[in-house]
UniProtKB/TrEMBL annotation, chain A:
<dbReference type="InterPro" id="IPR027417">
    <property type="entry name" value="P-loop_NTPase"/>
</dbReference>
<keyword id="KW-0029">Amino-acid transport</keyword>
<feature type="domain" description="ABC transporter">
    <location>
        <begin position="4"/>
        <end position="235"/>
    </location>
</feature>
<dbReference type="InterPro" id="IPR003439">
    <property type="entry name" value="ABC_transporter-like_ATP-bd"/>
</dbReference>
<keyword id="KW-0067">ATP-binding</keyword>
<dbReference type="GO" id="GO:0005524">
    <property type="term" value="F:ATP binding"/>
</dbReference>
<dbReference type="InterPro" id="IPR017871">
    <property type="entry name" value="ABC_transporter-like_CS"/>
</dbReference>
<dbReference type="Pfam" id="PF00005">
    <property type="entry name" value="ABC_tran"/>
</dbReference>
<keyword id="KW-0547">Nucleotide-binding</keyword>
TrEMBL record, chain B:
<keyword id="KW-1003">Cell membrane</keyword>
<feature type="region of interest" description="Disordered">
    <location>
        <begin position="302"/>
        <end position="325"/>
    </location>
</feature>
<keyword id="KW-0547">Nucleotide-binding</keyword>
<protein>
    <submittedName>
        <fullName>ATP-binding cassette domain-containing protein</fullName>
    </submittedName>
</protein>
<keyword id="KW-0812">Transmembrane</keyword>
<dbReference type="InterPro" id="IPR017871">
    <property type="entry name" value="ABC_transporter-like_CS"/>
</dbReference>
<feature type="transmembrane region" description="Helical">
    <location>
        <begin position="245"/>
        <end position="268"/>
    </location>
</feature>
<feature type="transmembrane region" description="Helical">
    <location>
        <begin position="12"/>
        <end position="29"/>
    </location>
</feature>
<dbReference type="GO" id="GO:0005524">
    <property type="term" value="F:ATP binding"/>
</dbReference>
Length: 235, 642
């Protein structure tokens, strides 16, 4: 059974239709990426899944359960967590508190261990663990947002532009980490402008254009596709 | 376009039909019926709510003491139109009855104007020190102001302006207050309430009209911009205190006029009318009606009065569907109820700027820095082809040095980049150039003149515009309106011009709106998105709008903070091309913070690398790319082949 199945979802902002019928699947253990121009609907697709902007029509099945009409916090409790676009850290909480908020719904005892793992991943966060998140630089906040999403120990991790605002040296680290998390069994749905990295780390990819799926294939094949190269790889 | 025009005509027709019904309503009821009484009071309260809407809804200043303006307006009527000061004998344009009794009796319309003037004055006096504060402080200070006026009203009978002229009549109230008696009209009486109703309706329509005119004006946009994001607003050249003061004064004036009317209508001015709960009552009207929504004031009146019916389920549903855009105004309130959120783009202090005292050690450092600069003549011998020359600039927060003694210069017409690891101090440096932070030490010359520690709106007006790393558009405004805010400093329309919409103001609006569209097209935004709400645009498009907003002020120097974040390679290429065009076609100088090395290497003529607040390298792109320290700290081995 597929872990996540989107069937013809249509999502609106006010009366502007952002998604014009998106269908896609994510299998357990996969890393799938969405690429496309600005306004293609990549972030909106993630927001629809996490319940932040629920679709008006269509269905979203997560492990066989319909979640299209669920509240965001209930969706998190099922095992989906998101690192949202634009960071959205809690500015007046410390870094450590922000990370703890990621684990808010967890009942198990491995939270400490996972926090150490996040610190290992981003040593800068450990250095600043007592600092208020709002006083950190943009890139540091981006690290925190990813770390916070990981703290939920999700089955499905939604990452919205994890490399945005990150120094080149760290972009590599982040992608190594994404590959690592995926290898350890977390299913990942990734939205990324940096298609080079995204196609490198993912198994399959969907190309979105103006709210629809224009193309989908294995990532390795899409990398060879001349149209994709021209439009999204900056070749 | 034609359908939009048709739509507008339909709306006007509906409004006129509604107005007609409202206007003839009293004719269907008995002259002294309780219903007309209720409606008259409702209309007077709507005036206040619409006045408060300018303060709270438009400008986002949470005023918990609006009752003070009601009180001042009412007392103005009490002082100038009653027999209270029986020793005086002043009669100005009043009817026979009022002329025949002692006291000060001035014509209703004149008192209305005096009330508006006095409340505006009170608004300015209380606002001048208060409006420098933010959200929660304004709430507390205005609350106290309301309470102080209430106390003064209660005890004012002990306060003698002169012998025989007490300030108020305490709890006994000033009674009777003159009823309206206008030339050519029958004197108003409490037996026939219809004329009162019509006067209240006229007042309400007037305030409504002003609200509408201001909403779509230079000033209205500035208020909403300040409400949405104060840091971005002042960076766009909006003087925060002055602009807020205008909102406060205008809103106060309507409270005063409404209060003066009520004093005459209720025939008394009694200290007990001015309790704190009344402020909350008017505020509830504004909030339940939807902040910043003009019709809301009226709708809210219905709601507040019917003891808060729960929101209609369909309305709640509609809100949910409309998504972020509709819910947003409520956030303005929420924002007031918490401490000001600070993020990296903004200053750390409560005040938007510069007044924040640096730590003691830092302050002496500052002096030393200046001292050092002068004897060497460094302030004056700046080379003329440098548009920006920053010397020994540092910024210390608490004990943390974010930027430490950086020298940095930009040649006129150049495109230079500032790169470095996350947290290296790049954005902090930007914030010092634009005046959001006051440098702890050092001096910054722009175009040959010092701008060190100047106010952001003034620096903007001199020709430095910026975009923000964490996009800071005004979410409840359209893309076009956002860009129009960028032109604020270059526009001239004032309060009265905007309300009257003089030909000059109209021309200016049209010109600015066209220019905004031009800028949006220039940065590559699709024409059908110009009038969409900014927050509904895709991330990359929001970045374009930010650039257009910065361009709208016709800057000489453009600071771009990670403009390609959220753009795909093709869009980044377009942006690179745009930067070249800006320089070549418009003669702009560009300073870029960016992590996309393809963009940085493709566009920069010179690159400076910061790490831990210090310059670790600078030079031509190829030199920097090959610098070992830069590779180690920032680029990583993989970036070599980009």
């Amino acid at each position: 059974m597929s872990m996540l199945v989107l069937d013809d979802i249509k999502t609106y902002y006010g009366n502007i239709q952002a998604l014009k019928g998106i269908s896609l699947t994510v299998e357990p253990g996969e890393c799938v990426t969405l690429i496309g121009s600005n306004g293609a609907g990549k972030s909106t697709t993630l927001r629809s899944i996490s319940g932040l902007t629920p679709p008006r029509t269509g269905s979203i099945l997560f492990e066989g359960q319909e979640i299209a009409r669920m509240a965001p916090q209930d969706i998190v409790s099922l095992g989906i967590s998101q690192s949202p676009e634009g960071r959205r850290c809690f500015p007046r909480m410390t870094v450590a508190e922000n990370l703890d908020m990621g684990a808010y719904l967890r009942r198990d005892t491995d939270v400490e261990q996972d926090r150490d793992r996040v610190y290992e991943l981003f040593p800068r966060l450990e250095e600043r663990s007592k600092q208020k998140a709002g006083t950190m630089s943009g890139g540091e906040q981006q690290m925190l947002a990813i770390g916070r999403a990981l703290m939920a120990k999700p089955k499905l991790l939604l990452l919205d532009e994890p490399s945005m605002g990150i120094a080149p040296i760290l972009v590599e680290r982040i992608y190594e980490t994404i590959a690592e998390i995926n290898k350890q069994g977390t299913t990942i749905l990734l939205v990324e402008q940096n298609a080079n990295f995204a196609l490198g780390v993912s198994h399959r990819a969907y190309v979105l254009e103006t709210g629809k799926v224009a193309l989908s294939d294995e990532s390795a094949k899409l990398r060879e596709n001349p149209d994709v190269q021209k439009a999204y790889l900056g070749a | 376009m034609t359908s939009a025009m048709g739509n507008r005509n339909v709306k006007i027709a509906i409004f006129l039909a509604g107005l007609f019904v409202v206007a003839i309503l009293p004719l269907f009821f008995n002259e002294s019926s309780g219903f007309i009484d209720d409606c008259t009071l409702a209309l007077a309260y709507i005036c206040m709510a619409l006045g408060l809407n300018i303060i709270v809804g438009f400008a986002g200043l949470l005023d918990l003491g609006y009752v003070a303006f009601f009180a001042i307006g009412a007392y103005t009527m009490g002082w100038f139109a009653s027999g209270f000061y029986a020793d005086a004998d002043i009669h100005l344009f009043v009817g026979e009855f009022a002329s025949s009794i002692p006291g000060i009796h001035v014509n209703f319309l004149i008192v209305l104007v005096i009330a508006a003037a006095l409340t505006t004055l009170a608004g300015i006096i209380i606002g001048l020190p208060t409006l420098r504060l933010r959200g929660d402080y304004i709430a507390i200070v205005t609350l106290a102001f309301g309470e102080i006026i209430h106390r003064i009203a209660i005890n004012g009978d002990e306060v003698k302006i002169a012998e025989g002229f007490p300030l108020t009549n305490g709890r006994q109230g000033i009674t009777p207050v003159d009823k309206i008696d206008l030339p050519f009209l029958e004197p108003f009486t409490s037996l026939n309430l219809r004329p009162w109703y019509w006067v209240a309706l006229a007042l309400a329509l007037f305030v409504l009209f002003v609200n509408f005119r201001l909403r779509d004006s230079r000033l209205g946009r500035a208020w909403i911009a300040l409400r949405e994001d104060e840091v971005a607003a002042i960076s766009m050249g909006i003087p925060a205190v002055k602009t807020k003061l205008l909102a406060y004064g205008t809103g106060a004036a309507f409270g005063g006029m409404s209060g003066a009317f009520l004093a005459s209508y209720l025939n008394t001015v009694n200290a007990d009318q001015f309790a704190f709960s009344f402020s909350i009552f008017v505020l509830a009207m504004v909030i339940l009606g939807g902040l910043g929504s003009i019709w809301g004031g009226g709708r809210g009146r219905g709601r507040a009065d019917v003891h808060q019916l729960p929101p209609h389920p369909r309305r709640a549903q509609r809100r949910a569907e409309q998504g972020r855009a509709r819910i947003r105004p409520l956030r303005a309130v929420v924002r007031h109820l918490r401490l000001p959120a600070r993020d990296h783009d903004g200053p750390q202090t409560r005040r938007p700027d510069t007044g924040a005292a640096p730590p003691d050690g830092a302050r002496t450092g500052h002096r030393r820095g200046r001292h050092r600069a002068r004897p060497g003549g460094a302030m004056t011998d700046s080379s003329p082809d440098l548009i920006l020359d920053a010397r020994d600039v540092s910024k210390v927060f608490g004990g943390l040095t974010a930027v430490g003694g950086v020298d940095f210069a930009i040649p006129r017409g150049g495109i230079v980049s500032l790169i470095g690891p996350n947290g290296a101090g790049k954005t902090t440096f930007f914030n010092m150039l634009t005046g959001l932070y006051k440098p702890t030490t050092g001096a910054i010359l722009f175009d040959g003149a010092p701008i060190t520690g100047g106010r952001p709106d003034k620096i903007m007006a001199r020709g430095i515009a910026r975009t923000f790393q964490n996009i800071r558009l005004f979410g409840t405004m359209s893309a076009r309106e956002n860009v129009m805010v960028g032109e604020h400093a270059r526009m001239r329309a004032g309060l009265f011009g905007s309300v009257l919409r003089t030909p000059r103001v109209r021309r200016e609006e049209r010109h600015v709106s066209d220019k905004a569209a031009e800028e949006l097209a220039y940065v590559g935004l699709a024409a059908n998105t110009f009038d969409q709400l900014a927050i509904n645009l895709a991330y990359g498009d929001q970045r374009r709008v930010e650039i257009a907003r910065a361009l709208a002020s016709d800057p000489k120097l453009l600071l771009l903070d990670e403009p390609t974040a959220g753009m795909n390679p093709q869009e980044s290429d377009e942006l690179t091309a745009l930067m070249h065009r800006l320089r070549d076609e418009r003669g702009l100088t560009i300073l870029l913070i960016e992590h996309d090395m393809k963009v940085v290497m493709g566009v920069s003529e010179y690159i400076t690398v910061l790490d831990h607040g210090e310059k670790i390298a600078e030079g031509l792109p190829d030199e920097v790319r090959a610098d070992n320290r830069v590779i180690e700290a920032y680029l990583g081995k993989g970036a070599m082949h980009e």
